[in-house]
Amino acid sequence: MKKRTSLKDIATRVGVSTALVSYVLNNQKEDRISKEVAARIKAVAKELNYRTNQIAKGLKTSKTFTIGLIVADISNSFSASLARIIEDEADKNGYTVLFGSSDENDIKLRKLAHEMINRGVDGLILAPTENAIELLLELKETEVPFVLLDRYFPQFRSSYVALDNFQAGYMATEHAIESGGKRIGMINFRSTHFHLEERTRGWLSALREHKIPGGKKQLRLVREHHLESEVQKTVNSLLSQQEPVDTLLLASNMIAIHALRYIIEKRLKVPKDIAIIVIDETEAFEFFYAPLTFIRQPLQEMGQTATRILLDNISHNKAVSQVNLSPELVVKKSSLHHYSSPLKR
Amino acid sequence: MKKRTSLKDIATRVGVSTALVSYVLNNQKEDRISKEVAARIKAVAKELNYRTNQIAKGLKTSKTFTIGLIVADISNSFSASLARIIEDEADKNGYTVLFGSSDENDIKLRKLAHEMINRGVDGLILAPTENAIELLLELKETEVPFVLLDRYFPQFRSSYVALDNFQAGYMATEHAIESGGKRIGMINFRSTHFHLEERTRGWLSALREHKIPGGKKQLRLVREHHLESEVQKTVNSLLSQQEPVDTLLLASNMIAIHALRYIIEKRLKVPKDIAIIVIDETEAFEFFYAPLTFIRQPLQEMGQTATRILLDNISHNKAVSQVNLSPELVVKKSSLHHYSSPLKR
């Protein structure tokens, strides 16, 4: 087997320190060093086929029994719970998990994926950011197995485990209609993420099938980086318009947390003034005075399935597995307009 | 510089595959391979000074601009929030963070620390498990800089950033007394962790100084792996004894979550039937019908300070920094026995 190109080989050829090569190739900010040097290091690395060696050949000859997991935001309970489940499942199989958190940032995601691969993980589980396609194409070339988690790109063929998000939106909305909702608004993120768009599509589809008026006029989109103020503004606008909504479908647990704070502040009565249904959950929901109705994502199944597919891919099977898990509706008080009626409890 | 010993060098000497050497040295379960082979690999690795080379020499010559973070339980919001803060602070300084979660398991902690060091992290931030001293002694020998987070061992000299936990227990108890508490019980983990013992010591010290009777008779210890049932049992025992407690000091956010569930189930009135104060917090507390009084840990400061100390240690300074951060009392309704009185609000 041909000797692998090392950082030192590149450093010697360029005439710089190994540390500098590592710095440049690990995609660090380059403002501290000259552009010419950075370009030269990258050119030599390419010429010596640095990455291909490290990754494609390196991994096949020596497993490290380590997998990388890149979540969207480790401070969100959704990501943190999944991380714990994947860690437990990997541990059962003798694998250690190294985590990273992209914070929904394409550059961080790329950096983390490169760091992990250069450190020899046997495979990756990742929740891709909005513009991750290019990175995923690169990953395919490296032949490091990977499984997408929670999100995927319908136009990009790869293994993934995700919720059936259309079904989640549809199911939540149908429940709202059955509970007596006549004007059902939705708040979602302003995002091109397919999984979020699917939730909106499910909502809209249920409204249409049940001939509930309003449609997209009752949809509000908020930006993640202005979440608190935009959730307040949009809840307020949906409630104070000429025909206020009587039900709010909230597309994520973080949108819900901010909406609840606003509802408490404004002393609105749930579900009398406004019924609430959330897609996804968080520990806080059960402690709200009207415990929240929500769509449960099967986290245990999601994390375990993703881990198993990845470990299968690592050890033998190169099959592409695409799994859409069914959402579960958990009905509590917040969605029941007439919750004093025994029939509705 | 002497060439580093590689896994391949060891494999060649022992006459096994590189993968097998990696498997053994990364502390994987060894039940699949013979004990003799495993022992031989370890002996040769020691003889060739494998670890020392990889770590002590490797790191000094080529920084990777990566740090490792090992938290206690990534699914706990305390760990997850700290991870996010450390990630942000490291990113500002051009560093990537690889996380791991020990789940309070000594063996997992050791495995993660080894994985990270063998993958060339420049330093480690870690929340040590109960019996981590031996590992910490090893880490000192490797000369990889590390900073302890949240927990430390008073008898072991190293950099750390933690809460002043005695003060936290004391402050919470003093507030309970000032709010009219006469019988103040405490629920803590059954653990030898110094930071948890300090919380109990602070509680006891405040009781004694204010001549509140009861003392250790009002202390209950619960096991982490039986948390739900033991919290229920202990809340019940403190409330149903001949002289029931009127205030509960809960030593962690997870103890509080289970106590609140039980309190809701039993339809107890907070604070009328029982006042509640918690050390540490979680998002759920603000949504409970009587928002919880709690001791806030300065997470931002904790994560940022730990990161800065580590990066200082990596780049030049070998000083030992020990930081005890001040707790902050956040008073809400749950602790105010007479909360309808305007003076108390």
UniProtKB/TrEMBL annotation, chains A, B:
Write out the entry's keywords from A to Z.
DNA-binding, Transcription, Transcription regulation
Question: Domain HTH lacI-type: where?
Answer: 5-61
Against SUPFAM superfamilies, the record matches this protein to:
lambda repressor-like DNA-binding domains (SSF47413), Periplasmic binding protein-like I (SSF53822)
Please give one Gene Ontology molecular function term for this protein.
transcription cis-regulatory region binding
| Coiled-coil annotated spans | none
Asked if Cell wall biogenesis/degradation is a keyword of the record, the answer is: no
State the name under which the record lists this protein: Transcriptional regulator, LacI family
